[in-house]
Amino acid sequence: MPLTPEQQAEIEEQRAHPQPTLRAVAPGMEKHLYTAHQVLDHGLVRVIDYMGDDNAITQAARVSYGRGTKSVSNDEGLIRYLMRHWHSTPFEMCEVKFHVKLPVFVARQWIRHRTANVNEYSARYSILDREFYIPAPEQLAAQSTVNNQGRGAVLEGAEAARVLDLLREDAMRSYDNYEQMLSQDGQQGLARELARMNLPANIYTQWYWKVDLHNLFHFLRLRADAHAQFEIRAFAEVMCAITRDWVPYAYAAFEDYRLGGTQLSGKGVAILKRRLAGETVTAENSGLSKGEWREFAAIWGEN
Amino acid sequence: MPLTPEQQAEIEEQRAHPQPTLRAVAPGMEKHLYTAHQVLDHGLVRVIDYMGDDNAITQAARVSYGRGTKSVSNDEGLIRYLMRHWHSTPFEMCEVKFHVKLPVFVARQWIRHRTANVNEYSARYSILDREFYIPAPEQLAAQSTVNNQGRGAVLEGAEAARVLDLLREDAMRSYDNYEQMLSQDGQQGLARELARMNLPANIYTQWYWKVDLHNLFHFLRLRADAHAQFEIRAFAEVMCAITRDWVPYAYAAFEDYRLGGTQLSGKGVAILKRRLAGETVTAENSGLSKGEWREFAAIWGEN
Amino acid sequence: MPLTPEQQAEIEEQRAHPQPTLRAVAPGMEKHLYTAHQVLDHGLVRVIDYMGDDNAITQAARVSYGRGTKSVSNDEGLIRYLMRHWHSTPFEMCEVKFHVKLPVFVARQWIRHRTANVNEYSARYSILDREFYIPAPEQLAAQSTVNNQGRGAVLEGAEAARVLDLLREDAMRSYDNYEQMLSQDGQQGLARELARMNLPANIYTQWYWKVDLHNLFHFLRLRADAHAQFEIRAFAEVMCAITRDWVPYAYAAFEDYRLGGTQLSGKGVAILKRRLAGETVTAENSGLSKGEWREFAAIWGEN
Amino acid sequence: MPLTPEQQAEIEEQRAHPQPTLRAVAPGMEKHLYTAHQVLDHGLVRVIDYMGDDNAITQAARVSYGRGTKSVSNDEGLIRYLMRHWHSTPFEMCEVKFHVKLPVFVARQWIRHRTANVNEYSARYSILDREFYIPAPEQLAAQSTVNNQGRGAVLEGAEAARVLDLLREDAMRSYDNYEQMLSQDGQQGLARELARMNLPANIYTQWYWKVDLHNLFHFLRLRADAHAQFEIRAFAEVMCAITRDWVPYAYAAFEDYRLGGTQLSGKGVAILKRRLAGETVTAENSGLSKGEWREFAAIWGEN
């Protein structure tokens, strides 16, 4: 769904008037400000404000470590060092505020990340719009047969059509009835805080979400992961691209050490050392459980 | 809705085997352990575990204030002193874990309290039960005409009947369709993480919720308040009663200083002083805005 | 102590190059950026960065309350409403980052406010400077005889001189010995992480401290209060003045509802109502404890 | 330093009276309750209270994952699965409260872990005891020549003796002067909140520290690590032993996946895969920086 002309006009107005500031400015982030990145069918992510840049991270680290940081001479190296050694506080010195429009079932996963600030549209005060997430056909997947919380093959033919019809019809009917219960035309009209209970979890809500860079990375590591539900991952991936433009060194370190890295258990280290020494380690002699071996072998191969 | 025989049996089993412990024991809380307090039509609150009692609060305060606390000779007086002066850390030394079954729209308000630990039933992994909150007739209220987020008069006659019918029918239909989409009978069956999006916000979910006493009081102050939505207040009131049994001194102090107290602005203090000095202060000469005067007068009268 | 020429030059350099930004700009805060406000004898507070302004608060509130906020037509009224009703999340949408130089015993109080981000100078990595807080003569006070944690009369004559001598001599001697233990001149030199244990709590440390406006107000309410220790209050008062320039509406509301207001217990409300009805309420018939009556009477008079 | 007879008597009294409870009881933890574990020269760790056991973790997980967790049939396997996949909330369902006596410079590191509840002895209210940490001779180490924040060789002979003399003399003198400033014998006596500033960072303080198991593990991973300063590691190691007795399955999983494991970057994974394929990877062709290679080679060898 395209933005309304009013929304588009508001964004253009906001983008038209740069003002001078003495604060740190991240050029890569300025270009994102207020611009709506569309996500899913009616969702969006917009950067409303930000604080700091790559340099704000090293500046804070140099307060902490004083002369000790002189030995790492450049910002990029220092940022990689901080990320590698889990020094989280310098990354907390950057902050970002997003405007996000998202389905309620995605919002319910998202809000579990507690170290952030949120102002959500309140359906006690106001009436929600008739906007529902309906999956694209290629996202309409069967329950995974191997993963209790995952998706398997894409649904096909009549079943897919039936599901889409059901989702659309139930959304429209529940919204019609929501409006009818609220209506004050010839009746009192049900309180908004009650009427909203009739709306399904694919209705869109929106919020302002503000978070520091350390906690944003934590969110992105979990939600841009291949095991995250597709619908929240769609948001996380847009936010990854924005973050790369905002703090390129920090994002590159995050990509190498977190997104692209892996955690080995003590047992896993021992197995790799045996293999490096020429030994053949199999599921049987690995000492790992079946599930653990499957995950290990997915990265390191069967032997 | 009554508990199932299985649930009832599990509770009785848990309650049948006291074990010795050296920890502080709160007799008033032991009697609540595992017992299901019913809330709304299908909801419940159960105490799963707790840490500490009134004495744990003063014990921690005496670590902090050392000899300085000797002057307040008894526990009750010290607890009132701590509450009055916003010394929050001693109250954080008590902890409680609840099992709560609640409608999703209540859960969405509740989760905004971030300083707690939560494990919620996951509809990605598992299938939700066919249980929906349908308001009792006396709770079916119109939108308030004075308060954007409140309820007004109770709906009557045909309108009330119509609303209840709509809520019930939409709940049943959406659940039927949820089941149909999930079904693997002659079809692949939609992934659970997708099918759940069809369920309305009055479906019941459940979680374990663990919180310290300071943050529990903060939650109760906001959610047992007359302005809180009835449905969350119903839970808060049950939890108030439990907390009173658990830490009677702390609860009494909370009741006096928080639930039963009020916050005055600098302007409000000045008005009361003028009145105590015999002056007649009205909306016009109060210096308060209209809304502020209305709230002030609700407690202190019109002049 | 004046800033060094190097520090002064760095500040001037930072202040000389405004850059264009599309973000919200708070003119009252721009003028504070990087400028060192001196506090106590060697301490300082500098604004390093900020996010948002008064408008960012109402913008977030309007996302939350949607059409419901239209009735409060102006920003100032809405901000007062939010503050009065403890709606904290819109205030969390503003963020500020300070550079603070402060004595260690003040830092130890300050750090108890957990909802902030901190990067402190590390004496494991680096060597602390020879800078100690020595109270001004008018701050050299005796232990209060009525308040376990307060100050009484100012010390005079020989006693005051003796205290200042002791503080200065012990500071200098401990620092001399710190340097001697660290020295690698003709010896190995003790590890910095060990040598620092010899330094007293009036040595200065420094940190970057980043916090949202809601939590800043909470900090300021407790630390700009007359009961706070003078040394931390000195910092809080400078930060109050800065915050007033940053978000004038929010600060004015904070001043009226928090700093200038008071909390009444249920018992306190009842007493005031009796007085307003013409009754004479004394300590004896108030139902309050002695301590509580003393605090009540300090605001409302003896009868 | 041994406990005083009064402290010993209080502990014995507390341990003498088990009471019945319906809550989960962890036998391995009951034996630790109240018992003082000595740490360093005058420090201690005591368990004051706890909530939950291994079973509380899986119980919470089963609420979350419902039928989905049935496939992992036993508690130990489920706990390992949760730890491996960074499912932190079930571990938050256990809580522990410690009484800790520790030097101030250790307390300053410790308090940086913000997700815990703390009540510290207040030197504004009360007078600190004459107890200082003086390192054992084998802990008196030189500054590391390779690590900005570490220790090198143990000091020897005259230098070691000189350091110990300085630490002891400065501690005693500063405490003498602290007492003299406080004294009301023939003078007013300086306020406690001021006099404390003369005390060095090796004086002992004490606090109650309460934390959930997830955050405790995070603390232990950082502070029981070989790179942590010895003095805080001494506390962490005692707490590791206590935690092993409290929640043996969870602790074993923590030991394998966190303490004994390692994090590989994307580059690190690629290097190991090249080696497994028979290639010789050296510092030069690794693509790692010098510092990163040194850390990598410390685990995986030079080629």
UniProtKB/TrEMBL annotation, chains A, B, C, D:
Binding of dUMP, residues: Q109, W110, I111, R112, E120, Y121, S122, A123, R124, R196, R223
An annotated GO BP: dTMP biosynthetic process
Residues at which FAD binds: T89, R112, H113, R114, E120, D212, L213, H214, H218
Any GO molecular function: thymidylate synthase (FAD) activity
InterPro entries: Thymidylate_synthase_ThyX, Thymidylate_synthase_ThyX_sf
Protein EC: 2.1.1.148
Signal peptide (from-to): none
Cofactor binding remark: Binds 4 FAD per tetramer. Each FAD binding site is formed by three monomers.
Catalytic residues (positions): R223 (involved in ionization of n3 of dump, leading to its activation)
Listed CDD domains: ThyX
Cofactor: FAD
Keywords assigned by UniProt, alphabetized: FAD, Flavoprotein, Methyltransferase, NADP, Nucleotide biosynthesis, Transferase
Function: Catalyzes the reductive methylation of 2'-deoxyuridine-5'-monophosphate (dUMP) to 2'-deoxythymidine-5'-monophosphate (dTMP) while utilizing 5,10-methylenetetrahydrofolate (mTHF) as the methyl donor, and NADPH and FADH(2) as the reductant.
Subunit structure: Homotetramer.
Family of the protein in this entry: Belongs to the thymidylate synthase ThyX family.
Stated name of the protein: Flavin-dependent thymidylate synthase
